[in-house]
Amino acid sequence: MLEGQQPLKGRKKILALSSGGGHWVQLRRIMPAFEGHYIAYATVNSHYRSEVPGAVFYEVVDVTRWNKAKWIVAVAQLLWIFLKERPDIVVSTGALPGYLGIRLASALGKRTIWVDSIANVEELSMSGQRIGAYADLWLTQWPHLAKENGPEYAGQVL
Question: Measured between alpha carbons, how far is 145 from 24 in angstroms, rounded to an integer?
């Protein structure tokens, strides 16, 4: 939906959240599954705004496990976005900004979807290994990484 439009009756408000690089590419590849719904994007690189013309777009701090002081900034930014957008669903392809967003969304009672990185062929990403308890739908893009009590496999974005 375009910026400023209100969601249509019966449509969901979705916050699509990711880090940059491959995480952003993968997020963009799965978004057609949500066509017809209101989608707001949040990522770490303002240059990505041009890839979602007319969409609501937020930039969040690029945070990693090595700069924990930025975690507070990231959580504050995400909380502000959640309060402003009031999403029904938060979907993320990782990494740490997405992990923090899914954790926050879960604490706020929002539905959550985590799609682990396709780049992690041998094992789940670090965030993907830890997100299971907070994601309503926890997916891996590799069939051999799916587990009975772990992520499900439902296909790849390639």
Answer: 21
